[in-house]
Amino acid sequence: MLFRVAALATCLLGAFTADAAGGNDWDYDHVELWGDKYPECNGKSNSPIALFTGECTSPEVDYKFYPGNCTIDDFKFYVTNNGVKMSINDGCTKPQVKIPNIAPKYEHLQTHIHLSSEHSIDGNFYGAEMHMVHQQMDGNGAFLGFAVTGTMIVPTAQANNPMFEAWLQRWVDYMNSEAVCESCWGAADIQPYDMNVYQGFIGKDFYHYSGGLTTPGCNEVVAWNFTTEPWEISVRQYQMLTELILDTKVPADDGTCNDITVASQGGSTSRPPQALNGRNVVKYCSFS
Fold first, then answer.
1. Kindly report the CA angle at 43 between 37 and 44, in degrees rounded to 5?
2. What's the average model confidence in pLDDT over 177-190?
3. Is 252 exposed, middle or buried (0-12, 13-18, 19+ CB in 10 A)?
4. CB neighbours (10 Å) of residue 102?
5. HSE toward the beta carbon, residue 210, CA cutoff 13 A
6. Would you say 81 and 56 are in contact if contact means Cβ atoms under 8 Å apart?
7. The predicted structure's pLDDT at residue 255
8. What pLDDT score does 24 carry?
9. Phi and psi angles of residue 115, each rounded to the nearest 5 degrees, phi first
10. Burial class of residue 255, CB neighbours in 10 A (0-12, 13-18, 19+)
11. DSSP notation for 41-106
């Protein structure tokens, strides 16, 4: 039984990270067709959703973040056909988050970014949306579920965001690898960075609700936690992010270079908000 649960967790994690097969399995121009092949995309607890500001449902409740001891060199940075990603190699103590009223803690697995936001806040959409994916296990190592801590990204900072710059340069370094072709990027400026992946979340208010993956198969197994304050990056950094996601090419078997993005014609890698269907959205307000 434990093996079957572990296999399910591995399968679902693949849904967070997997590429659409050749861009033909699904894309962002035809999100209304996802449910034809992936029935759970027609479910009643899908994500994203429309969020709305309001009074605190549970005031003076803090999320607890545990940074672990992984350094930025323990992270693997890469680009797939639906966005930029980074995951953590084994061999270090991974970051963890404790969600109010849920035990035990969730362990950080990977981070990815969608171009144009998936969730909306008061009807407003934003330039990009970051998801940090976590997995929860019980004391016996059995899989319990996933959690995502998410935030909007906006290109409103006057100066470069230092942590995001460290990430960008490592994605540029990936673009200069043999996995990518026809890259126009110059040499990456790789600098050391003492990284706490949660530094943009500590002390923030969060929306919390039960939902699903925002890509096929849309499995409804995610505890969503979305900050009320966006993460600011510079215009230059947003431009680089856009080019990384939309312009990546990889070698084909016949030696040509093929675009891999499954973005919509408008450049979006985001699913529109789905119906709430009576679900409860909690707003946790920090006392920090």
1. 165
2. 91
3. exposed
4. 16
5. 11
6. no
7. 86
8. 59
9. -80, 130
10. exposed
11. GGSSS-S--EE---S-SB-S---EEE--S--GGGEEEEEETTEEEEEE-SSS---EEE-TT--SPE
**Where do the DSSP E strands lie in 199-260?**
206-211, 222-227, 231-234, 249-251, 257-259
d(CA 130, CA 120): 13
Copy the structure tokens of residue 61. Answer: 């409740």
Q: What is the pTM of this model?
A: 0.90
Q: What structural domains does the chain harbor?
A: 2-284 (3.10.200.10)
Helical ranges in the chain per DSSP H: 2-17, 34-37, 162-175, 235-246
Assigned token pair, 127: 């330039």
Calpha distance 214→19 (Å, rounded): 14
Burial-class residue 133 by CB neighbours within 10 Å (0-12, 13-18, 19+).
buried
First to last CA, the chain: 42
